[in-house]
């Protein structure tokens, strides 16, 4: 599965046994024949063993991973944008809003449906088999912190969208600021761990599938297509950071170029099993160019000009700067979109 970049132990149950009550015998009249001697009491039954714990519910491994990915893709960007929106008008995030701001934008929210999809279904999946310890723990933390952050945003959005701060001199805004920051910081940390855990698990799944394709089909179109897209993802994951290892990036760039060149060469063969909707030539080359520009920018320590910094500061103009993460990610997303359409 190719993804577009957006930039606990169980509790123990106690089994309580109820004691059987014994009925008392009433008085007997004197002329009533004596009762036969009572039979010796039967030996007490051995205490029954507690029932075995119910097995963890089963879920297909791919279905489980896809559920985690869908939750992440549907929420993490919007949840981070919400804090960016809030911080865009609160001048001092340590002090919080003052009530003297000339512009109050409020916050964005995460939809209730998205919070619901990342709630009980994710927590249930995290307790299901097959166990994926690192990913399950990260998913649980992401679900819990996202829910808390999402509800805090809803409260803040109600307050700011109704402009209640004009009636209470920003009293509630000041009071909720600390919780907003606290919930976001917890979510942000969990989001980073969840993202990495998903990447690791997805890479393992794709590598296993790639090996299976090679075994069953050989190095034909399906193999080179998946290998190229996997190497592109590994490359963008590294290059989008400012402190990436140049030597490792150089190796990953070469791996991508080798795979892309093999894929392109295969599609030019008359007997290739290339899909009729083949349309990756330009996206493959555009991503190659953007990756090279990004590597050179960091490797050669080329600073951004004043004009480039202005473009990078804009909400949607960073893609116009050669060697920027924004341009790299945009071209990667276009490659992924073209690849998905071809399927």
What's the short story on this structure?
This protein has 343 residues and is an all-alpha fold.
Explained architecture:
By secondary structure, this protein is mostly helical. Helices cover 59% and strands 0% of the residues. It has helices at 61-87, 112-117, 120-126, 133-161, 171-217, 221-239, 246-267, 281-299, 306-313, 325-342. The chain starts with 60 loop residues before the first helix and ends with a helix. The model is unreliable at 4-39 (pLDDT under 50).
Question: What is the percent of helical residues?
Answer: 55-70%
Main beta-sheet annotation: none
Rg is 31 Å
Provide a count of the helices.
Answer: 10
How far apart are the first and last residues' alpha carbons, in Å?
A: 11 Å
Could you tell me the strand content as a percent range?
Answer: under 5%
Which structural class best describes the helix and strand composition? mainly alpha
Principal-axis shape? globular
Oligomer: single chain
For the residues shown, what is the average pLDDT?
85
Give me the count of strands: 0
How would you spell out the order of helices and strands?
HHHHHHHHHH
Low-confidence stretches: 4-39
List the defining traits of the structure above.
mainly alpha, single chain, 10 helices, 0% strand, 343 residues, 59% helix
């Amino acid at each position: 599965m190719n993804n577009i970049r957006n930039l606990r132990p169980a509790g123990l149950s106690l089994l309580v046994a109820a004691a059987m009550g014994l009925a008392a015998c009433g008085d007997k009249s004197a002329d009533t024949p004596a009762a036969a001697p009572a039979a010796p009491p039967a030996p007490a039954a051995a205490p029954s063993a507690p029932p075995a714990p119910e097995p963890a519910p089963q879920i297909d491994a791919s279905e489980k991973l896809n559920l985690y990915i869908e939750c992440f893709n549907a929420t993490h960007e919007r949840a981070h944008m919400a804090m960016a929106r809030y911080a865009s008008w609160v001048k001092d995030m340590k002090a919080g809003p003052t009530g003297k701001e000339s512009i109050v934008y409020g916050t964005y929210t995460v939809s209730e449906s998205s919070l619901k999809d990342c709630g009980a279904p994710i927590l249930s999946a995290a307790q299901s088999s097959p166990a994926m310890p690192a990913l399950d723990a990260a998913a649980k933390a992401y679900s819990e912190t996202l829910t808390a952050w999402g509800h805090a945003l809803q409260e803040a959005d109600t307050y700011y969208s109704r402009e209640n701060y004009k009636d209470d001199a920003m009293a509630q805004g000041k009071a909720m600021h600390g919780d907003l920051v606290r919930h976001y910081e917890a979510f942000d940390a969990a989001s980073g761990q969840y993202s990495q855990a998903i990447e690791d698990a997805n890479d393992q799944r794709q590598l296993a599938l790639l090996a299976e394709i090679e075994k069953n089909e050989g190095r034909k179109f399906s193999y080179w297509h998946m290998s190229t897209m996997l190497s592109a993802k590994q490359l963008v994951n590294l290059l989008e950071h400012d402190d990436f290892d140049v030597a490792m990036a150089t190796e990953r760039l070469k791996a991508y170029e080798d795979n892309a060149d093999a894929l392109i060469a295969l599609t030019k063969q008359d007997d290739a099993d290339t899909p009729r909707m083949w349309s990756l030539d330009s996206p493959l080359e555009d991503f190659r160019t953007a990756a090279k520009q990004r590597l050179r920018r960091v490797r050669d320590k080329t600073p951004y000009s004043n004009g480039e910094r202005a473009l990078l500061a804009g909400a949607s103009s960073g893609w116009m700067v050669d060697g920027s993460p924004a341009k790299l990610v945009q071209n990667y997303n276009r490659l992924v979109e073209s690849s998905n359409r071809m399927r």
